[in-house]
Amino acid sequence: MTIQQEILELKQKERYDFKDLQAITRILRSEEGCPWDREQDHHSIRASMIEETYEVVEAIDTENPVLLREELGDAMFQVMFHAQIEDECGRFDVGDVVDDICKKMIHRHPHVFGTVQADTSDAVLQNWEMIKTEEKQRNTLSDKLHAIPPMLPALMRASKVSKKAGRTEDQTAQSLIDSLIAGLTSLGASSQENAQAQIGTLLFEMVDLSRVLDVDAELALSAKTDAFIDEIANR
Prior knowledge:
This protein has 235 residues and is mostly helical. 73% of the residues lie in helices and 0% in strands. The longest helix has 25 residues, at 65-89. It is globular, with a radius of gyration of 24 Å.
């Protein structure tokens, strides 16, 4: 079947499936497809993956199922696009991506697909971490901390690092507050060149405090930013 025949067949469909999305992506990247799509590579569309992910998050936060359906489709297209680029290079295709994630989910849920007992969410998470450590051979704390993606939003990354390192195991909310007060006091007398490091320390400690209080620092700051914008708009 030629590209033009595929295009005609696709245009006549009333409902599409996963294979159709794969075909559309391949056509867009073909010589008879879209010049812009054809010119892209992993790096040029990297930002799009981030943007689409945040738009999915927005739909979740606003509890908008119509928007969520649309944004999940956009995110899925990004996955398909990256897989298509790799398919053209002969390294893997979207079928390999699906195969990998299916195998991973089966392997990481031995309490569902195997004989391991895990009756609580905590037990499931503990098993997950153990299996992940074995898979990735992240045997030291340093290995585990370095595996946390550095491109995550700073507060989210700090929270993951703090949790993985067990920073708050012996801390109380009051001890963290006392440390923050001391840090803020010394910040006022610090030089400009030391201010960045000290503010970084204070922010990291605020993340620790958030974890002790069972508050998501990323969501807390986002909510405060939204509230501030609303305050300005209502003046």
